[in-house]
Amino acid sequence: MDSRKDFDWCHYQPNDDSLDVNHSVSFYYKYLVDENKRTFERVDAFEVPYSPYLSSTQALGDNMLVASGQDISFGEYDAKGNFIKRFRYLGETTSIYRVFKYDFDNFYFTQSENE
């Protein structure tokens, strides 16, 4: 790769089994970082549908919204990492880049004077 001329790619060969993309799951990880102590700690982890790239997460209070791009799905998980609901995109695309969830409170309308 031309973008990393200073990196030694010898351990990353095309036939290297460690780069196998035929996996069934990916993982969501949450870390707490202490910049003053220069430390980090993983505080949460759970399995999500496999996607090597094109994925995103969004904190929704205690829940998490996870988009698994190559799986063409997104789902919501509770605070313990339990799956709540999954949605799939049925179209001509082969991936989902990013998903967001909004409540739309006062988004299109404002409260009327009578309320």
Which segments are poorly predicted (pLDDT under 50) over 5 or more consecutive residues? 16-20
End-to-end Cα distance: 62 Å
Inertia-based shape:
extended
Share of β-strand residues? 35-45%
Helix content: under 10%
Number of helices: 0
Mean pLDDT: 82
Q: Strand arrangement, largest sheet?
A: 3-4-5-6
Class from helix and strand fractions: mainly beta
Radius of gyration from the alpha-carbon trace, in angstroms: 19 Å
Largest sheet: 4 strands, antiparallel
Keywords: Transferase
Protein name: Arylsulfotransferase (ASST)
GO molecular function: aryl sulfotransferase activity
InterPro entries: Arylsulfotransferase_bact
Could you explain how this protein is built, in words?
The chain is mainly β. Helices cover 0% and strands 38% of the residues. The chain has no helices and six strands. It has strands at 25-34, 39-49, 55-60, 63-68, 73-77, 83-88. The strands form two sheets. The protein has a four-stranded antiparallel beta sheet with strand order 3-4-5-6, with no helix packed on it. The protein has a two-stranded antiparallel sheet with strand order 1-2. A hairpin with a 5-residue loop joins strand 5 (73-77) and strand 6. It is extended, with a radius of gyration of 19 Å. The N and C termini lie far apart (62 Å). 11% of the residues are buried.
